[in-house]
Design a protein that fits this description.
Layout lengths: L13 E11 L4 E9 L5 E2 L11 E3 L5 E5 L1 E6 L12 H10 L2 E6 L10 H8 L6 E2 L17 H7 L4 E2 L8 H14 L3 E3 L4 H4 L8 H6 L7 H17 L3 E3 L5 H12 L4 E5 L1 H5 L21 H12 L5 E2 L8 H4 L16 H12 L4 H8 L1 H6 L15 E11 L18 E11 L2 E3 L4
Parallel strand pairs: 1-4, 1-5, 6-7, 7-8, 9-10, 10-11, 11-12, 12-13
Antiparallel strand pairs: 1-2, 2-3, 5-14, 14-15, 15-16
């Protein structure tokens, strides 16, 4: 039988996929074949005789891809402090709908995640995905005093970041990175220097000129990236640069990696797909930080992904209550949602249009993110605990944010047609299949 939504699965059932494209970047596997998950939740050889129909779920769909569950190392779930926009449960549901089984939450909550108690609260949440919290790099995200990194790491923090605010004091950043290195944890930085941003909210483009909006100079990001790389060089601490948007930033990362520095960087779906010139007008759903770059920046980001400079995809899923985004571009807060559109956007832009190898695409969503936070990536190998994403790369669908599992609707893709979508996940012995 084929899986149908709503079917009861209280008793453990095996799952059989008779035919799919199997992508596993951990072992370099890209082939057509069958997949079997036993009732204990492990990848197993397809048995000569399948279990009885009452103990088996059969998943059949034309064009199906089965791969390890995606990992997003940059999400905002607004919990605690702004749960009208998102919370751990709704954010995790949105992630699972997008094909993710693991996420790293950012610490710019209210109060900030700078105590072991808040780290444990996120780590222990019973949700549709596994939550691995990052914790503040500095107390209160104020950038003045290093947070208690050792206690935060012991509580379960996988990385340190003041995301939303850069640690711009080089002496404080030095202390943070020295201590993080001893713990073997990366420092993730929102690389934007506020003194160079000067209140800017958008890159130069027709919509900015028509609206008279303050411009966000690219130097605000580029010089921040330069300073972060210098701190990495000085301390040897693993540095992860978040949501790059400028061509020169990509060049700096490329040079740093060629130098052998432990620097990684992420590309977001929106910075890979959209340019400032695409902003349709006074629409707050297109305001993000850093803002969309020029078309030359977009091309540089795509080249950076293709040549291995930018090894990580991440959404920077940033929900906001609908009323706040309805105020127009100038008054709206920064940020867009992205978990449920991530597969469609990145597969279309990078694989279909730019010729990225599907295994490399999968590695940017699975292998590199997990290795960044020190976790073994899930795999399709026999005997492995099954943690999977089921993707229909050919599915065409019109984005309607009202159908999303999260609480917020701030998507620049609203009303657009995307091609490619996650249809199910498998995690901890359970098949979650909203679209099979």
């Amino acid at each position: 039988m084929c899986y149908t939504p709503g079917m009861k699965t209280e008793t453990p059932k095996a799952v059989f996929v008779p035919h799919a494209r199997l992508l596993d970047p951990e072992c370099g596997r890209d082939e057509e074949g069958a997949l079997f998950i036993d009732a204990e939740g492990r990848i197993a050889p397809v048995p000569a005789r399948l279990p009885a129909a009452s103990r088996l779920v059969v998943v059949e769909r034309p064009g199906l891809i089965v791969m390890p569950g995606l990992c997003d190392v940059h999400v905002h779930f607004r919990d605690p402090g702004a749960t009208e926009a998102e919370d751990l449960v709704t954010g995790s549901a949105a992630a699972a709908n997008g094909g993710f089984t693991r996420v790293v939450t950012m610490p710019n909550t209210n109060p900030p995640t700078d105590t072991p108690e808040l780290v444990r609260r996120a780590r222990q949440a019973q949700t549709a995905v596994s939550i691995f919290p990052s914790a503040c790099a500095t107390v209160g995200r104020a950038g003045r005093v290093c947070a208690p990194l050792e206690a935060l790491e012991e509580a379960g923090a996988v990385a340190f970041s003041d995301d939303g605010a850069m640690v711009s004091d080089p002496e404080v950043m030095h202390v943070v990175m020295v201590r993080a290195k001893k713990l073997g944890r990366p420092v993730m930085d929102h690389a934007v220097l506020p003194e160079l941003q000067r209140g800017g909210i958008v890159r130069d483009c027709p919509a900015a000129r028509a609206g008279g909006w303050a411009l966000f100079p690219p130097e605000a990001e580029v010089e921040a990236v330069r300073a972060d790389i210098a701190a990495c060089r000085d301390t040897g601490c693993a540095l992860h640069l978040q949501h790059l948007s400028c061509a020169e930033s990509v060049a700096l990362v490329r040079a740093a990696r060629a130098e052998g520095l432990p620097v990684t960087a992420e590309a977001t779906p929106h910075h890979l797909a959209l340019a400032a010139e695409d902003i349709p007008g006074n629409d707050g759903n297109w305001r993000m930080n850093p803002p969309l770059g020029t078309r030359a920046d977009v091309e540089a980001l795509r080249r950076g992904v293709l040549d291995g400079t930018l090894t990580v995809f991440a959404t920077d899923h940033a929900p906001h209550a609908p009323a706040t985004k309805a105020k127009g571009f100038q008054a709206a807060p920064f940020g867009i949602i992205g978990l449920e559109t991530a597969v469609g956007v990145t597969w279309d832009v990078m694989v279909r249009r730019c010729g990225m190898a599907p295994l490399a695409w999968a590695a940017a969503w699975v292998t590199a993110p997990n290795r960044l936070i020190g976790l073994p990536p899930p795999t399709l190998q026999i005997g492995a605990v099954a943690e999977l994403a089921f993707i229909d790369s050919e599915a065409e669908w019109v984005v309607n944010p009202a159908d999303f599992a999260g609480k917020s609707r701030n998507s620049p893709w609203a009303g657009q047609t995307l091609r490619g979508r996650a249809v199910a996940t498998y995690r901890r012995g359970k098949l979650r299949a909203p679209r099979l």
